[in-house]
Amino acid sequence: MAAAGPSVFLLMVNGQVESAQFPEYDELYCKYCFVYGQDWAPTAGLEEGISQITSKSQDVRQALVWNFPIDVTFKSTNPYGWPQIVLSVYGPDVFGNDVVRGYGAVHVPFSPGRHKRTIPMFVPESTSKLQRLTSWFMGRRPEYTDPKVVAQGEGREVTRVRSQGFVTLLFNVVTKDMRKLGYDTGPPDTQRASGPSPPQGLPR
Amino acid sequence: MAEVHVIGQIMGATGFSESSLFCKWGVHTGAAWKLLSGVREGQTQVDTPQVGDMAYWSHPIDLHFATKGLQGWPRLHLQVWSQDSFGRCQLAGYGFCHVPSSPGTHQLDCPTWRPLGSWREQLARAFVGGGPQLLHGDAVYSGADRYRLHTAAGGTVHLELGLLLRHFDRYGVEC
């Protein structure tokens, strides 16, 4: 009699929010959270976090480094709704108010191994020039009421955004029992830098 | 039945002469395929890039198919449109690419094209905007009746799609 196979597989993700490239902004901090489908549940680790405030380095690199750890484990019965990490970056404007500088999201990679991802960050745009002026003046920029919207496809067709920076993330992924359940995740592609490359003139 | 998960993003587009782009996308499959979860079509946000010339959408795609056969492997078809400051939309390109057939993460670059009209229509498009569009969207991903078209190249759409296959080895399929 064959033993009953597993019905649940585990996904363990650790890594860091490494650094950011925002040519026009300084003194930024980031918040991350995970968005996942109904069949997923976190079993260990932290689902959300807020990093420190970082300033650009004085040298020619102008690097914004957070080095902020990520460590979470999920269990699931179905790969649909694979977890995505949603990042929101905030910084001060001219008057000292905290305004959003970018939102971005990416799926956690599913082949085991080490992965580097550079994701673009975008902000919603004001509808008219007058609204852009008043929001700059009052310090209340357009932002999403729930940053998790960035991880969904529905409802985005009416939004206009401006992309203005990049954030680099590093992931180490370990899965358990996916192969026993019949899933084939393909060859592990370790140490592959992926995602859009920043345009010339910006440090990688 | 074998199952296929397509998990990834439409990252963005480069090489278009217009900025402020958005993309309408859809997935077309054969008769043996059934969509179990996920949305089969959608539209991305409109992005105006401040840094560089790539418009970034980061639009997530998460599809779960069950299939009884290999024919009609899913195809992703795209329409890239540009929106000007008055809110008018103009077609920038059509394109399609097959969803990859081997498991793992893939970077895809999908080239696009747009229909050219007569010289009058091309002149009007340069001054006033507009331009010819396809009546039936299936000419984008099927080869029939393409010989009637005269087109010009648009830019490239960049996608990162990951593929997760289940039970394909049970049926002896190698991929």
UniProtKB/TrEMBL annotation, chain A:
Q: Which InterPro entries match?
A: C2_B9-type_dom (IPR010796)
Superkingdom field:
Eukaryota
Q: Which Pfam families match?
A: B9-C2
- In the UniProt record, which is one GO cellular component term? MKS complex
Subcellular localization(s) per the UniProt record:
Cytoplasm, Cytoskeleton, Cilium basal body
Which proteins does it associate with, and in what oligomeric form?
Part of the tectonic-like complex (also named B9 complex).
Question: Know the name of this protein?
Answer: B9 domain-containing protein 1
- Organism of derivation: Ursus americanus (American black bear)
UniProtKB/TrEMBL annotation, chain B:
Subcellular localization, as worded in the UniProt entry = Cytoplasm, Cytoskeleton, Cilium basal body
Assigned protein family: Belongs to the B9D family.
Q: What is its main location?
A: cytoplasm
Superkingdom of the organism of origin: Eukaryota
Gene name of the encoded protein = B9D2
Q: Which PANTHER family match?
A: B9 DOMAIN-CONTAINING (PTHR12968), B9 DOMAIN-CONTAINING PROTEIN 2 (PTHR12968:SF2)
Query: Which GO MF terms are attached to this record?
Result: gamma-tubulin binding
Species this chain originates from: Ursus americanus (American black bear)
Please provide the record's keywords in A-Z order.
Cell projection, Cilium biogenesis/degradation, Cytoplasm, Cytoskeleton
Q: Does the keyword Transcription apply?
A: no
An example of a Gene Ontology cellular component annotation for this protein is:
centrosome
Record function comment: Component of the tectonic-like complex, a complex localized at the transition zone of primary cilia and acting as a barrier that prevents diffusion of transmembrane proteins between the cilia and plasma membranes.
Q: GO biological process: any one?
A: cilium assembly
**PROSITE patterns membership:** C2_B9
Q: Name one Pfam family in it.
A: B9-C2
Q: What is this protein called?
A: B9 domain-containing protein 2
Its taxonomic placement starts with: Eukaryota, Metazoa, Chordata, Craniata, Vertebrata
